[in-house]
């Protein structure tokens, strides 16, 4: 470069730096830049890439959050169909209090030729559905891109498992590939709502009749933000999303915190029965992040009073959640999946209803051991959201709420979404689900059982402290069938049963 051009370029750079410095000194938004003009921008640049630096260069294989490197790697490898074994032994501290392990048998059972399935449908259901052990958990179109929905549903169609639509409505992309669907309604009743936001039974009946819809579900709450609704800003309500959700284009789309169609446990059970009727006898149930034992027991009492029960209950753990939520709710509200799952299982068992109601578990289900653990804790099947997103290509960048997903999964930006190759990701979803179920079945065989119904709480143990472990059978109460009705349940359960009231979600005072 000639000397004159070099001097000119230097002068331009110096002038630009001086302009930035001058602006930094007079701006009032950032104190750091007022004290350290120009160089202070390094702080914001490093802060921006901190999650990536943490994830790829600092965290160890087993201690990352929400999903550690080992789990992310196994999801990617299974989705790609590549090598997934690990050499040289575990890196985890198996003596650490809280570490859990499955109890194998010295006489393993033969692995079944086909993976077990779970029949969903109680005595009031005329069109039951056989659910896989691992399914796609609730994620809406709007939260995920059209291509992500296509890939998830295509994978479900190829692999023979179910795809929960999430509460964002029954979009064309859910129906495009013919995968089995669980159509979820939330408090906004998107896709089956009147102009003023109430439930529209005719729309619901018409759409639930679609052959791809195998079951219908009502969302009471979710793990990421239990107790609050959600808002989709008007700028994000495109014509396509508005059409899917039955809301006005460009207007703020609100999911209220609570439902309008019922306000008591009895009302909830009656509405679930109505959904099943409108759906032509297909299974109907609800999803919740468990709040308290008394509220669950109030719902169970309502089942006994009304004389019917949901065909399934999906338990979402507070550790779950693809949705964006306030930090206080993500970290400090809601019951973790282990406690919530066992609460629902035992409440149904104690009331003599467990054989009528199937229980699904949703919350950080990623590997085969997660599936088996949840089956032991009271689930009949599992749903997975974030692991399925990773199978589609999610890299856990944790910016889902910004519409800037780097891989086109959680975005409505067409330019970003086009990066997601639907045929390739469809096959990855199928492979990941198949490999995870096969590994869960192999684990159960190693434990000496060939069907989930044979698993017992004694087959899952937890390290209590150094030198002492307890099984789940020893550590927790497990109610026998009808124990609450007979009065033979543990004292704390009896007290909760007395405080629960089918006519209100509020706990009744007992003298």
Automatic annotation (TrEMBL):
E.C. code: 1.4.-.-
Any one biological process term the GO annotation gives: glutamate biosynthetic process
Top-tier EC class: oxidoreductase
Single GO term (MF): glutamate synthase activity
Pfam families: Glu_synthase
InterPro entries with a match to the protein in the record: Aldolase_TIM, GltB, Glu_synthdom, YerD
Span of domain Glutamate synthase: 134-449
Originating organism: Demequina capsici
Keyword list, A-Z: Oxidoreductase
Family: Belongs to the glutamate synthase family.
Protein name: FMN-binding glutamate synthase family protein
Domain of life: Bacteria
